[in-house]
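agent: user wants the full assembly modeled, not chains individually. Plan: 1) parse entity lines 2) check alphabet per entity 3) run joint structure prediction 4) return tokens. Steps 1-2 passed, two entities, 527 residues total. Proceeding.
--- entities ---
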Amino acid sequence: MRFIRAKAVVAGLGLALSMAACGDAGDDDDGGSDVEVKENAADEFDDGTRMKELAEAGKVTVGVKYDQPGLGFKGATDDIPSGFDVEVAKLLVADLGIDPEDTSAVTYQETISDNREPFLQQGKVDLVLASYSITDDRRKVVGQTGPYFLTGQQLLVPADSDVESIADLAGQEVCSVTGSTSIDRINEQGAKGVGFDSYSECVQKVLDGTVPAMSTDGSILAGYAAQNEGQLKVVGEEFSEERIGVGYSLDHPEMCEWINDVLEESFEDGSWADAFEKTLGPSGIETPDPPELDACPAA
Amino acid sequence: MEAVFDNVDAYLKAFGYTLALFLVSGVLSMVLGTFLVALRVGPIAVLRWAGATYVTLVRNTPLVIVFAFFSFAAPTLGIRFTWLDVHIDDYDFTALFGAAVASLTLYTSSFVCEALRAGVNAVPLGQAEAARAIGLPFSGVMSQVVLPQALRASLPPLASVQIALIKNTSVAAVFGVAEATAQMRGFTNDFSSQRLGIFVAFAIGYIVIVEVVSLLSASLERRWRAAT
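--- prediction returned ---
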């Protein structure tokens, strides 16, 4: 069953690509991938599942970040946020038979680090793909599956800085987002974490010289380094490992298998790698091998 | 709530920063506020105008914007607090703390000024006239006669202003100071299953600090009432 579906998607993707090749070859404006929307998706799901409800309603709300270039970023004039998280979200949305580019059907709700669990618990969002690290404590209150991406914390410093690793910053202030896991890791490494509201504010503080460095997931930093080329650079080994996964509500445990199936499919048919190259590739990150998915908890 | 009990030193340290922000900005805002009220009720028109303009400008600006100014705009104008680099125990008072104190002080002093001005207005005019009549200069009239009486009259609103300051320190959480609200967000991130307990624990911390300040103010009020 899964094999047939995977083949259908590959065939569909091939068709879409060949059609795109015939058509407007220069049209490459939004950088988003052309995800194939599945037809009659509602028939594929068992009755009573949340996926069926969503597919039949034709509406879904996805929680994403708005302020992380490369992962989830929404500029002031964008209709739809862009980034790797968003691309993976589009794969899931398309599997429900909903057009991920249609903003009347899909709501890309901004979720900040603090409200991801409450939003899932209250049903304000159906899925969260917001650089959402999988942790045991979060799994007590929400469902998390994946990971679809592995990343680790690095440092972003001014281009002329001598700092080579977090060890060089012992006792010094390193900026990150207030209340984030990154702050804890900075403190564990002997530096002093100071918190601001968003990563872009930390970039400001590094640029104006108030703090010598900022730190969070390397993929996010690479995006800022690309935005401020010549002024900022990413340095150091990764000093933590974050497993970025998809959040869903524990009220709908059946979603886990579905999410894993869609992710697995995208690993196999290359749409995962495509999404990666389109969003994180330009900042100079090489596309890694897809990570190993966690098994879903027995229902 | 176990999250807080297990990390009680982090909890206390965070409230230490809250207290430090409150005490430093509280004292500075009283000093600056008193200076401002002297400008506002003084005999020189330009200074009266300057004081009134300051109060209008700062009191009408949201605190977050004052903070944003000192964090993001002031450094581009060359106003940094990098000269501040004090380390006491494991507390660090650096440029970010300086910017927070400056924001809180400038903001709160406009409220202190207005609370004190209400007190000054409550002092009968005859008091100032009598002080003038015995030959005191303006500084003497203010410091010896008017302000001591004004302070008593404005104690309740001043206490409210300082209590508001305690709670306003929480804005510093997103401007680089690891005070209580920042620590709370750290806890809710690490222990998201205990969100409610964490909120309660931190609310209690603030309530205790505010309660101490309002008890102090109440006892001061009683003592001063007995003195008059």
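agent: reporting back. The longest strand of chain A covers residues 143-151. The domain at 153-235 of chain A is CATH 3.40.190.10 (D-Maltodextrin-Binding Protein; domain 2).
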